[in-house]
Amino acid sequence: MTTTLPDAAAPQLPPLTEGLLPPPKPQVGAPRTLGRRILRGREADPVWVRPGLIALLALTAALYVWNLGASGWANSFYSAAVQAGTQSWKAFFFGSFDSSNLITVDKPPASLWVMEISARIFGVNSWSILVPQALEGVASVGVLYLAVRRALNPVAGLIAGAVLALTPIATLMFRFNNPDAFLVLLLVLAAYAMMRAIEKVSTGWLVLAATFVGFGFLTKMMQAFVIVPVFALVYLVVANTPLRRRMWQLLLAGVALVVSSGWWVLIVALIPTSDRPYIGGSQHNSIVELIMGYNGLGRLTGSETGSVTPGVAGGGMWGETGWSRMFSSEYGGQIAWLIPAAFIALGAALWFTRQASRTDITRAAVLLWGGWLIITGLTFSFAAGIIHPYYSVALAPAIGALVGIGSVMVWQHRDHASARTTLAVAMAVTSGWAYVLLGRSADWMPWLRNLVLIGGIVAAIALTFVTLLPRRAASVVAGAGLVI
């Protein structure tokens, strides 16, 4: 493993895990069995870390799988394509809507391939179609934990995973058969690979990250590319290797991105139109037109070729565009609960790492996840074409990562008044915003709205004076704040 060396002139912060996790313990005795390694995890971790992760994944699986059959065929458009793919390998490859291969669905087939393999094994039914989505959700939570843990510690990873698992739009889309579930998993895998690439200055991990994004393109086309500029810029800035090598590594990653996203497109483009189905969503049976128009720039401009109804800049049937879109009545209750907290955490984390070296892994993670949140949020906020509230599930991993990293980092600096103030403000803003969002669904558990507001205010006050409390009482306050 390549050791990350700090810049010579940069002052160093104390270890961010100081005071939160015990020092590593030397390994003694006989080698551990496989079962013990799975249940116990790393010897240096507190005993609760691995059981906590297992519990998080088990509860996430239960949440996503419970009564899954109630959704029936979910999106029947994609379910029909799954059925076609089980009856014809040609339909499987092209993502055809029907087994006679008359026309494809309006997306590439990568997410369908997962469901079709399941349906070929277990038969075509709602469970064989939807269980893969639930498992993709569990995997996304687990991979997010691993990525955030590498940046800071297991506590931050568990918080990040829990936020993703419990985000309302995630609990919908990981129980539904739209492409978004698979897309989120692929992008979280790409982020994990990016963290490994930055940590090890590894071309292989960087190429793997690009490959995951490429298969994201084969899942939902241009949406997968939104985060590419952020990933490339973060690596170019923070990787601990000479600039020339960083540029060559990014060039190789670009080649991997083109190959992994373009191989299927090239095959479809080269096959004569008489030998393949019509490209759904295009006006002239063109896969390039589908990429650039209906599933590309047209989503931003509102002039996508193949759209049911053209969008209108600033408004239209897809809703008003602008800075407040993710907080609107249509989107807010699905994704916006912790967006204010995520931005507060982003600012705090950047402040507390301001003196860290250029190659600091924690700040690199903050930049990566913060960039993901900002660029994806702006894209969704100002897109004038076809957009649905469930697209916002792509924001959930970044929100979870920032809340996990930021909250733990600020808690570690709670001896400083600025950190305590940040915790209190984040708590008050989050509970106040939750009060507003719950008011939009006033008939659902109406007592919860006031409880969250009052509890949040009390927790904010307690966090302001947390250093005056005994250690156990301080831990209770922190836990109560997380629950609220």
Question: Which descriptors apply to this entry?
Answer:
484 residues; mainly alpha; 63% helix
Report on this model:
By secondary structure, the protein is mainly α. The protein contains 20 helices and no strands. The chain has helices spanning 34-40, 49-65, 76-87, 89-94, 110-122, 126-151, 154-166, 168-173, 180-200, 203-220, 228-238, 243-270, 287-301, 332-335, 339-352, 361-382, 396-412, 417-439, 446-464, 471-483. Helix 3 crosses helix 5 (110-122) and helix 16 runs antiparallel to helix 17 (396-412). The longest helix has 28 residues, at 243-270. The chain is globular, with a radius of gyration of 23 Å.
How far apart lie the N and C ends? 40 Å
Quick one: overall form? globular
Biggest sheet, in brief?
none
Estimate percent helicity. Answer: 55-70%
Oligomer: single chain
DSSP summary: helix tally: 20
Which sequence of SSEs, written as H and E, runs from N to C?
HHHHHHHHHHHHHHHHHHHH
Strand runs, count:
0
Radius of gyration: 23 Å
Helix-strand makeup class: mainly alpha
Q: What are the low-pLDDT stretches, counting only 5+ consecutive residues below 50? A: 1-19, 26-30, 306-315
The amount of beta strand, in percent, is under 5%
Task: Please state the average pLDDT score.
Answer: 89
